[in-house]
């Protein structure tokens, strides 16, 4: 008998399984299910491999979320689900069928099209390189080259948000706002629609900074993690946002994906 976590979810894909896992992760945030293991089975291309996976899932009492482009594999996993009494969820199939029926068009049914090395792929790679190279205000000249400029105080998740947006193909630069430093003059050029301010609840930021000091082995009474300093920094940042007339996103208790979605929606208006 395989020793497992209390809950087991398998991701089955004929590519890398990123789409299905993203759906599963978003779903699991709605449940209080600790000790849940999510395991990817990638590049599944034959029925024997699929059967072995399904038998493991059945033995562990789990479920399967799958994205399979080939019709024979979709049929095989449904048959195995019935045989082994395992619940399976077709993450992509219903959407593919809806598009096919609505627009009277047939899908390519080729695995891995989402990750093929086409123009959007190279755009994402370029954006990732850009985000790494110009992270945390390393070169203010990047402000004029960017698709998105993120502004905010320290420890407000500017870098992970930049990386997430870069993965979506946006050249993103982030710049820290500190009361003792004058913001770059480039920010005051004609950049309407590109600049986004990030703010956060002061008490929430206090917890984040205090934890950061603990991890670094520093005393927790440092000014960096004092409520007075945090309120001063946030007030300063809000003043700069007002001067720039940029949208302001409150990231308190928001997932990176949620904030990124709000920014993308704003860009598309």
UniProtKB/TrEMBL annotation:
Pfam families: Kinase-PPPase. InterPro entries: Kinase-pyrophosphorylase (IPR005177), PPDK_reg (IPR026565). GO terms for molecular function: transferase activity. It catalyses: N(tele)-phospho-L-histidyl/O-phospho-L-threonyl-[pyruvate, phosphate dikinase] + phosphate + H(+) = N(tele)-phospho-L-histidyl/L-threonyl-[pyruvate, phosphate dikinase] + diphosphate; N(tele)-phospho-L-histidyl/L-threonyl-[pyruvate, phosphate dikinase] + ADP = N(tele)-phospho-L-histidyl/O-phospho-L-threonyl-[pyruvate, phosphate dikinase] + AMP + H(+). ADP binds at residues 152-159. Its EC number is 2.7.11.32, 2.7.4.27. Keywords: Kinase, Nucleotide-binding, Pyruvate, Serine/threonine-protein kinase, Transferase. It is an enzyme of class 2 (transferase). Belongs to the pyruvate, phosphate/water dikinase regulatory protein family. PDRP subfamily. Bifunctional serine/threonine kinase and phosphorylase involved in the regulation of the pyruvate, phosphate dikinase (PPDK) by catalyzing its phosphorylation/dephosphorylation. NCBIfam families: PRK05339.1. This is Putative pyruvate, phosphate dikinase regulatory protein.
